[in-house]
Amino acid sequence: MRTTVRRHLGKVVAGAATAVTGTAVMVAITLPGTAGADDTAGRAGGAAASAAAGQQGGAGGAVPPAVVEAAPAEGDRGTGHDPLTDDEIRRAERSALSRQMMTAGEDVGGDRGPQRLGVDLAEPDAAEADDPNAPRRADVTYYDYRNDTLVTRTVNLATGTVERTGTQHGVQPPLSPEEQTEAARLLIADPLGAGLKADYRDATGKELTSPDQLLLASMVYRAVPGAEPAALDQCGEHRCVRLLPKVKDGPWIDARSLVVDLSTRKVSRLAG
Q1: 86-169 in CATH: which number?
Q2: Which of 55, 70, 130, 178 has the most CB atoms at less than 10 Å from its CB?
Q3: The Cα angle at residue 238 between residues 234 and 239, in degrees rounded to 5
């Protein structure tokens, strides 16, 4: 049985694959579905196969219970191309964020300090590519909303020294969970979020008041001149996002016509 809800933002997507059409390109987004008749049939087939195997093997062919082994203890430091350990990530973050950045930068909510996006193992320098003892480094990336700048600081994990800092404008990596949450908060509070709230009410019978009520995915949005409202012309230089919200334990809500400019904290609707 499928529940039919009134359409406010265009449609409520119950699962399956949906095509996300941008201004200039089409991006395929696969939305997780819910279990249905096919899944039930798969489970039934698996059960039948298990039963047949048991009959064939007889009492002596019983499968022993699985044993879950504890994961090996993670060391403070990795080696070579090992993924960063939790300790290395924490140390890289502490080393990368200088007092000057903390004072001058601004995060997605307008608070002091740039918005941290992620910490990744840095590629070795070209001269060190074949050296098994090359120092491990981490790239710590931030987005500074004060001046729309992507900042990457490379930290030597052995010494804690910031070896280089790179800044870029007009580069928009995927959004962090904190940015997605802030975008949803702005959308819910904006008059253009009325359709989202109405769809949520139709799907759940409850009022949508907080991003915590949703599961969020997102796409960075870049402007194509002449194809959207003038308010979105700076998207790409500004940090703009289209949200893909999902009701917890419920359907996806199609909010692709709405764009949140996190740099200006404004919401706009795409033309057409």
Answers
A1: 3.10.450.40
A2: 178
A3: 135
